[in-house]
Amino acid sequence: MMEEAKDEASVLSVHGDDIKVTEVLKDGDTLTFLIISKKDRHKPVVSPVFQLSGTGEYHVDRTYDDFEWLQQHLFAQEDVPGIQGVIFPPLPAKPQVNASAKTMKQLGILGLGEWQPYCKAMETFLRQVAAHSVLCRNKAVEVFLTSSAPPGRQKIRKNIFNRLSQAVEEMRKEGHKDVDEFFQTERDRNLVLTSCTKTAAEKFLDMVLTEQKIAVACGHFSAALHLLVEPGEDADKQAFSRVCVKLSEVFESMKKNMTSVAENNMSTLGLGLDLESRHQEAEKEMLFRRTCKLVELESTKRNAEKAKPVKKLAMEEVKKAAETEFEHICRVAKQEITRFEKVRVEMLQQALVQWCEKQLLTAKESADQFNKHLQVFGGMA
Amino acid sequence: MADTARDPPPEHTDFHELEDGEEDLFPEPTATEEESQPASLPAEDISTNSNGPKQDSLFDDDPEDLFAEATEEVSLDSPERDVLLSDGPSPAITPITPPTSVITPRIGHAHDDMFTRSSFDEIEEEEGGDSFDIHISVSDPEKVGDGMNAYMAYKVTTKTSMSLFKCSDFSVKRRFSDFLGLHSKLASKYLHIGYIVPPAPEKSIVGMTKVKVGKEDQSSNEFVEKRRSALERYLMRTVKHPILLKDPDVLQFLESSELPRAVSTQALSSAGLLRMVNKAADAVNKMTIKMNESDAWFEEKQQHFENLDVQLRKLHTSVESLVCHRKELSVNTAQFAKSAAMLGNSEDHTALSRALSQLAEVEEKIDQLHQDQANADFYLFSELLGDYVRLITAVKGVFDHRMKTWQKWQDSQMLLQKKREAEAKLQFTNKPDKLQQAKDEIKEEIEELEGKVQQGERDFEQISKIIRKEVSRFEKERVKDFKSIIIKYLESLVQTQQQLIKYWEAFLPEAKAIS
């Protein structure tokens, strides 16, 4: 574990903000992602073993399990002070072939089977990890991004960072009153935002699904119209056939339009809402960890007070340790929250702007297309 | 495109030209059973007819016999007649030779001057100047009465410059059963001679019950609007038909302030049951009539309509599913708008909060666009396809009537054959006293049957000719109909996109201003 972390600059040998997940290959249930990162020429190459193409780029294949490996390593950094105060970049859920309803709900817009958004979500994960001043120092990140060999597959021991299954006990802790107003406010806000964002993401997904259905229906109608085309030299028959063919083209345009609208939705705001939702969840987990620590701290304080003289010293030690750890966590957490706020607003803005621009473009193209059709019909004898 | 291309003369191989000296094409009073009109063409052998309610005798004896001058027997496809058809400027609608009985003016109808020409075709030409200009709208649905006896009254407004009408802008109040009554009358007069009578909108017991019970909700409002629109389309289709437009029942429907209540249209009335029974009988008959189709045109057309029926139904289902999804999208969009608003409210960052609230507003507006689009999908396409599916049922109906007409003719022929055989046998009877009487009887019967056979043949030819014209008209109208609907639809699509452009352009600066 590197220790010389004085400056906040990334210690990675690649540009964190330029990581690309360009492709995904599916082999049964296994997904393999192609990741390209650009070498940072100001940084030394860590080891000659690592792959480097002539273009100054690293091209690596990673499966979903490799991503999980990386995430586990990040979670497992218990010797980093205040690590529990970090808002960990969320990894998208694993897509499955015959996903259960629960998994589909978890995946949200990423479960639609469109790989472009999914790759983008994985890419965002990696960029966020690389951009995180604490996390990027973990060797696992460098290995993940640059090693030609797939990272080790050994299972890391479980830790408390895994998705917190809300045991009843844990739920009670969640509502524990805070000693710090800043954090109490943040917890309250996060609670509301998490549920609102989740709902918005879900409703957005519903919209996209229906848009896709409409596109399919238009396609069917367009195809069915060809069955009305009649052979023959009769002028009226020919006229009607022409009408049907042209109408079929209209519905084909409608299908294209709807498909574009749905794609635009997915690739911009859909992704944005999904990311925001998962981010809020990640913040929630962090705040919860801190709250648990708070509860623990208060309990050690009580123990220290109540302790009999024999045990008192020991209890005091425990209390001090708990206090120190809690302080670290709070410090890191405050930084994280500030950073998080900035990042999420930027991200949402970008999503909204891109979404609007794409939909505007699609609307203009469609208006043009429909106008052309209108002229054709108007001019038809 | 030649709108007024004439049909080629029908190629009936077993059709024989009426020669001079033979029967009048439009015989004077003596020939038919009906007391009414001299030239009551096809109509019925009322005695054997089972096609629905008895025909009203609207056709009174008219001194101004239309065909008074037409004493020369003219065969259906004589050059003389053809010339008349193509004379003068082509009217907007392909002229169709109607049965003369139809155009006899009703008593009290002031426009006698229309009927002083010697041929209806010329009249059509004349009215080529009075071109088709009529617009009917059905509006202002109003609930009349309470409870289960309540009904919806609709305002039917006609705007026209045609001299056929007394005024140029007038309205009346009508209820749904009035429309059904009108259709029933038109069907009984015209369907069996081959005219494609546009079908009336369908009854809906569920829909109406909701309205009667007073449920003032989204679905009953939609039902009323759907019905209103259907009634309007029904009337427009009906008046677009050049023959039906001039029908006295149609004129009365549009103009008369009071209309006798059409009782026999009630769903569960005895007349309704009778209709159901007749329909069943017809279906059985259809299966057992094996017609020797000598005219390939009819065979081909029938096949064509069968196919069209199947395809249109598929398309109709397809569009209904599209409408459904569109409505679903509207609901989803509204829900997303709400969630975005809540998100905006919970957001601390001021600019982001504002942007999210704006987002919610944009989505609400888009929801409205989706609803409008769903309506366009439905009222333009779904209803168009539904109308055509129903129209094709009427088309198939006239083809069936032609088969029945053929059957009747064949039956008469067979009977005649039998009688002739019986007459021949009589020659060899050995009872001279009864012989003369029997001979006279049979001679009478044979004469009568000969008349029937000829009438049957004429009826068959007439209905065939009319159907050809009707099908041609149908195919022309179809193109016009579809084109006009599609243009409206495209306009709605363009407008939706333009609205979206406005919304997105307004939102973009808000999104950019977040930080």
From TrEMBL, chain A:
One of its GO terms (biological process) is protein transport. Gene3D superfamilies: Arfaptin homology (AH) domain/BAR domain (1.20.1270.60), Phox-like domain (3.30.1520.10). Keywords: Protein transport, Transport. Residues 1-152 form the PX domain. InterPro entries: AH/BAR_dom_sf, PX_dom, PX_dom_sf. Pfam families: PX. PROSITE patterns: PX (PS50195). GO terms for molecular function: phosphatidylinositol binding. Belongs to the sorting nexin family. This is Sorting nexin-6 isoform X1. The gene is LOC114436223.
From TrEMBL, chain B:
GO terms for molecular function: phosphatidylinositol binding. It comes from the Eukaryota. Residues 1-18 have a biased composition (Basic and acidic residues). Keywords: Acetylation, Cell projection, Coiled coil, Endosome, Membrane, Phosphoprotein, Protein transport, Transport. GO terms for cellular component: cytosol; early endosome membrane; lamellipodium. The keyword Transport applies. Residues 132-261 form the PX domain. InterPro entries: AH/BAR_dom_sf, PX_dom, PX_dom_sf, Vps5_C. Involved in several stages of intracellular trafficking. Interacts with membranes containing phosphatidylinositol 3-phosphate (PtdIns(3P)) or phosphatidylinositol 3,5-bisphosphate (PtdIns(3,5)P2). Acts in part as component of the retromer membrane-deforming SNX-BAR subcomplex. The SNX-BAR retromer mediates retrograde transport of cargo proteins from endosomes to the trans-Golgi network (TGN) and is involved in endosome-to-plasma membrane transport for cargo protein recycling. This is Sorting nexin-2. It comes from Parambassis ranga.
